[in-house]
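Changelog note: in this version the structure field was regenerated for every chain. One regenerated record is shown below for reference.
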Amino acid sequence: MKVPEKMRAACLVAKGKIEVKEINVPKPAPEEVLIRVEACGICGTDVEVRDHGLPGQPPFGEHFVMGHEYAGVVVGLGNNVDEFKIGDRVAVEVHKGCGKCQNCIMGNYTACLNYGRKDKGHAAGGLTVDGGFAEYTVNHINTLYRIPDSVSFDHASLATTAGCALYAFDIFGGYVPGDTIVVIGPGPIGLALVQVGKALGAEKVVLVGTRENRLSLGERMGADYTVNIKVGEDPVALVKEITGGIGADVVFDAAGAVSSLDMAFDLVKAGGKVVMVAFYKDPITVHMSRAVKRHIQLYTVRGEGRRNVGRALSLMAQGKIDLRPLITHRFPLAQINQAFDVFINRIDGALKVIIHPQE
């Protein structure tokens, strides 16, 4: 495939400021491939990167390219790459660990001890190195997965979202057939948790939130029960009713609200599991002794580790999860600032907004 010397890219030129510029097409290093990006989703983390910055991120003012949820076509190969070929359709995961530290060696590469250190081999696409809001980008082969023929680029760009949900199950063992699970927060990750829970065999899935349109979508995506706390519905009473007073086996906090973790303690059974999937905007206060006295197991999740993006693509191809209903808006690269505005302000019910860099 013919690759141009120049490309359009959405560059983070200053704090809170993205500009579409013409820059050089990157060259793949050894063990990397060049990808023509076909679809890249906007995530809440992108807003944080744009407006505040994250550890390991290039300094504001450099022409840094954000975007970490993308899919495309391999159009160039670095030296010694035979794992992929030109023309392969691929989806990416964000994290490429250094491969040297203790965490990476143990498989916990999303918590790489050299996070942000490019000189040590670490890379997080769209977070610490250039990502997918561009016509072309490069990725290490460790972060790539072939897209099944039946899965579109748009759907494949959500494999990172699904991978995060799968990792949330993976982190505590993932064995939930027959269990009752609760998901707090019907955002993209929360809705993906609903579908993954059903795909893995959870018997009862309860979705808790405040927006009726998202709760309705959750029902269509597999939730057995929905609870709108904004109108006074009581999730604790419902969970007690459907579990014979015991409580949920697993509760996922995908909301990151001031009271959501405390709510999770109310919902989970003694000896159950609480998984924190969301970022908390501000410090929160919870009665941790409640967790200790009831032997509640607490877990946190960073990213889409243990190669769960590949598992997500397989489940998509099998028809066991389908996140396409999350996609509400699509924009060409030139309209990326409008796309961010739609995403942040939830204009027209925006949930997942996809950028098409080739348009």
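Spot check on this record: The first helix runs from residue 44 to 51. DSSP finds eleven helices and 18 strands in the chain.
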